[in-house]
Design a protein that fits this description.
607 residues; alpha/beta; Rossmann fold; 2 domains; ten-stranded mixed sheet; 18% strand; elongated; nucleotide-binding; ATP-binding; DNA binding
Amino acid sequence: MNNAHHPQLDDDRLMLLSWSTPVLAQFVMLIIMCMQRHWLYVLMLAPGLLGSALSLAVMAIRSRRARQATSQADTGISNSQTSPDVAWQSSRSSSDLSRIPCIDFEQLHHLDDDPLIWRSIVRRWFETNSSGCDIGMTAHAPFAIDLVHAGPHAMVAGTTGSGKSALLISWCMALSIRYSPEALHFVFLDFKGGSTFNMLEHLPHTVGNVCDLDLSHAIRALNAIERELIRREALVSEERVSHINQLKHPPARLVVVIDEFHALRDRLPDYMQRLNRLASLGRSLGMHLIVCTQNPVGQVHADMKANISLNVCLRVTDRMQSHELIGTNAAADISPSMPGGAYCHDGQRVMGFRCSAVRHVETLVDAIDTAARFHGCTLQQPLFSAPLAEHVTMRDLRMLGDEPWHGIPFALADNGVVVEPISLDIAHGNIAIIGAYGRGKTNLLLHCASQLYLSGMRMVRYTYKIRNVYHTGRENHDARHTRDTYVSEGHGRLAWFVDDADDLLDPFRTDDAANDLRMALADPDVTVICAVEKPNAVLADRCPTRIVFPTGDRTNDLMNGIPGPILDGFEPDDYMIAGRAVFIRQASACLVQCVERKDFADPSDSF
């Protein structure tokens, strides 16, 4: 029996062969590129080849240790005493897991000892003895994971039904009762339909939660994570320290939890570099990554895997997957009747444990929220927001922004991460509103004019077109005399709204109305806000601020000043949304959704 080959050794050889083949292929490609002097391709191939070679070397070392351990075990067991139940170390490990007591999360943390759970949570927030969090039980004691010191990043793997979701919820709950919302934030990316983190979204620690049902929302989350990383880099650089804990006022730690990472990688491959950068820089910036997947083999980039030192493996169906994550085959032998059984490799040792599932998630979330309010924690601002809505009202602007406004609040602006109110400042020159019929130009003009009236500004003029004839709103006395008197007394300026101004801006038109508009555009004491269907040279020269409704014709939209990256984010349905426009001011541009007037009326009735 001692001379027989174990099947697991054959699996190791096949695994090493499967990893050595791509390394050899990349090496051959590198030699060919060098011979042809394609140095750019050499630079692109070299990092991947180096990462694959290092992974192969680590696997070879682990395989050698496993063979040595197996050989020692075979030597120490006589034929007469050996039985099938104890022949394999992995079988003994599986039986060890079955002897671990199965208790729920509330029992593990003694939360049932106090009828008011929130009081015990507040006490824990004041403790500073350890950064470890109990998430389960070993054979003799609670099992704790220290993401700060053993991480800073972790990978969780397990097949369907192994208990990955329960483990993630327990881990996040353990962190939540260990750290206050002022010390720890969560961002959840659920690519399993949004079912895993539904309840955790209501934690006071949560600053973002998205699922794969809305990819545009997921993209905003990844952009927000990148922006937060850059912000923290700037903070560390400004105070000339090496770690964010050395700052005078360090920000809260941010834990990004991703369920079904392979689905995220498949659906948004262009954004993986952001997560790779988080994995490489997160330790010193207080940002952590918990990646959960069904199959760890080939699903995680080598650059990211090199920075993940904490691996948790629940039941898997392939010994290669178990060996890839924890260096042994033990996780492949966990019984299907034991959900929550897992092994953790922290870089030094492998420990078997059973996860303690949360008995009542909603009750515990409510207790944590009560504890946060008692603790005096301020409401955490979301790291990112949902994409622009199709309909926006003044109530939406007031909910997201603080009054008084500096200008005319007219839309919600989207910078790709957050949505916030934006206003028109009539003191900074003329404004052109460009778009096709039916896109919302008249609605926007009426809204801005009414807001000026409500603010107490008396010098507002409105010109509109009916049956090819322009009409100007009635005024009590001569407009030019009133304007000159008003400005001379230091009260302000005239705001002139002109709808359907294309004909008035015709360079061949010489009547009084066209001349008055040209003079007003050049007058520094007058702000002209005009709506046209097509841009022209006069507006390009006299209007530093533009609101452009895209047409769907990329060439025309680019000529109208809309940047290409903003157009790339437009879906076909976005061009049909009334009020969806691009706000351009000098060298900056952003996507906006203009306010919708509920009391829309004909201009002749309003002015």
